[in-house]
Structures are given as structure tokens and as C-alpha cells.
Design a protein that fits this description.
Helix content: 25-40%
CATH superfamily of the largest domain: NAD(P)-binding Rossmann-like Domain
Number of domains: 2
Distance between the termini: 24 Å
Shape: globular
Number of strands: 14
Largest sheet: 6 strands, mixed
Order of helices and strands: EEHEEHEEHEEHEHEHEEEHEH
Structural class: alpha/beta
CATH architecture of the largest domain: 3-Layer(aba) Sandwich
Number of helices: 8
Strand content: 15-25%
Length: 266
């Protein structure tokens, strides 16, 4: 799909540091063109400490409809948004922002939505499912919320950082209404098993659970992208499990971002 640049083109930059490895601006610009959006994403290297300055400048540029945030700005960016989605408000992070009618910014975090979409796109059924989530950092916490939103019957979170795990369970209980529990890394009896830890980014990383406990009745997902087939996904496929890897999540986030931006006031 050819991208046309003209005076009506809208801008949706990606702010981060480092930014040299980012491939999403190209992919997202292509997807926007495929969807008929005259919008492009472009990478902006914004050092930590300079985010406020840059957002102030973007606010003054009328054809900037929003921006996305990557490391190290997802938490800092929260304070520069006047309004937030429920997920963003709960977790205090922002990975995408769009204009409000008054020109201020509305923030959201897309990790959970993108992960869940990747699972559904590859055949997973969330409604009524029992879901195990390994790791409750930024991605895992957002995934837990999105799984609850999509109608999971039960979500069990597991993390080696027990205080963080318990804090998330307490935070989400009003939303979960008894559907979220803390637990161990045993996948027995679960319909979906989700790795939201960084395990798999290095070949020497241990697996996040005992692969002998996986069965072909489980759908297995992984957040680790850009590292080829991880040992976890490989073990899941050997067990006969349908899977969605981190690269599938990267593809899914393109449509999540487009949907988010198209719900703009404009």
C-alpha cells in the first residue's frame, strides 16, 4: 500500500528512547493507509526528562492527532493526559494518546487489548475461559484487565514478586468481582496460558512453567516478540497447543492503535 503525504496528512508520532530499533512506525503507517486513513506514524527520539517539552510542542501542532509512547515514557506520559481509559487509570500508564475535543490528550494502554486480540485472531475463546497469566508487570496487568473485559470466567495471576501480585489482585477486585485470584505457575485445568514475563528474550532463559504440564486443550500465548520462536512457544507447539506468539501481538496492536485513533473527536 502506497502512503501519500500531503497537506491533509495527520501525524501520530512514536516517542521513545532509544528509538533506532522501532519498526512499528512503518508497519502502523502501512496499516493506516490500508484502512484509508491519511495518517502516518514517525519515530521521535525523546530522551527521558524531555517528554513534557515535546508533548507541549505536539499539542500546539494542529495536525498531530495523537502519539504513542514506548520506553521509558509509559508511566511519565500518564500525567500529560487530561483524561484516561479505565485501564490506563487503574495502572497509571499510557502507551497511546489521542486528542480530546478541547485539544487535550486522552490516554490509554494498548498492551492488554493487543494481546487479547492476537489470541482471538489465532483461535482462542476468551468468553467463559479459565486464564492463567504468568507475570504481572505492565503488560501482564493490562492483559488481566482485558481478559476480564472480554468475559473470562476466571483469571489467575502468578508472579515471583508476591507483593506486586497481591497489590494487582487488590486493585482489580472491584472490577473482577471474584473472578481474579493469585496462584502458582501450574497450568493444569486452564483454557488459556499467557506468558507476560520477559522469559524467552534470551536463549538461556528458563521456561516460565513446567512444559510437561501443558496439554493440547490449552491455548498458549506469549508477549515476547522479535526473538523468533521462543522456547515456551516451541514447547507449547510440541504439546499440541494452538499458540499466538509475541509477533502476533505486534501485528494485532496495529489495528488496536488505528481503532483507538479513529475514535477521536474529529
Amino acid at each position: 500500500m502506497h502512503i501519500n503525504l500531503n497537506g491533509r496528512t495527520r501525524l501520530y508520532p512514536l516517542l521513545g528512547d532509544p528509538i533506532i530499533y522501532a519498526r512499528s512506525p512503518d508497519w502502523l503507517s502501512q496499516r493506516m493507509a490500508e484502512r484509508g486513513m491519511n495518517t502516518i506514524s514517525l519515530p521521535l527520539e525523546v530522551p527521558e526528562g524531555n517528554l513534557g517539552q515535546v508533548i507541549e510542542g505536539l499539542t500546539a501542532i494542529n495536525n498531530v492527532d495523537g502519539f504513542s509512547l514506548t520506553m521509558p515514557h509509559k508511566q511519565t506520559g500518564f500525567s500529560y493526559c487530561a483524561t484516561h481509559s479505565e485501564t490506563s487509570e487503574l495502572l497509571g500508564v499510557v502507551s497511546a494518546a489521542r486528542r480530546n475535543a478541547d485539544g487535550s490528550w486522552h490516554g490509554h494502554t494498548t498492551d492488554g487489548d493487543a494481546f487479547v486480540k492476537a489470541q482471538i485472531d489465532h483461535g482462542a475463546v476468551i468468553q467463559g475461559a479459565r486464564v492463567l497469566i504468568l507475570g504481572v508487570g505492565g503488560a501482564g496487568s493490562a492483559i488481566a484487565i482485558s481478559m476480564l473485559d472480554q468475559g473470562a470466567k476466571e483469571v489467575v495471576i502468578c508472579d515471583q514478586d508476591t507483593p506486586r501480585m497481591n497489590a494487582l489482585a487488590t486493585l482489580l477486585e472491584p472490577k473482577a468481582q471474584g473472578r481474579l485470584q493469585t496462584g502458582a505457575s501450574d497450568p493444569t485445568g486452564f483454557d488459556l496460558v499467557c506468558n507476560a514475563t520477559p522469559m524467552g528474550m534470551n536463549e538461556t532463559d528458563p521456561l516460565p512453567l513446567d512444559p510437561s504440564l501443558l496439554s493440547d486443550t490449552m491455548f498458549v500465548g506469549d508477549v515476547v516478540a522479535g526473538h523468533g520462536e521462543t522456547a515456551f512457544i516451541r514447547a507449547a507447539r510440541m504439546a499440541g497447543c494452538p499458540t499466538a506468539d509475541g509477533d502476533a501481538m505486534v501485528v494485532a496492536v496495529l489495528d488496536v492503535m488505528c481503532d483507538f485513533l479513529e475514535r477521536s473527536w474529529q
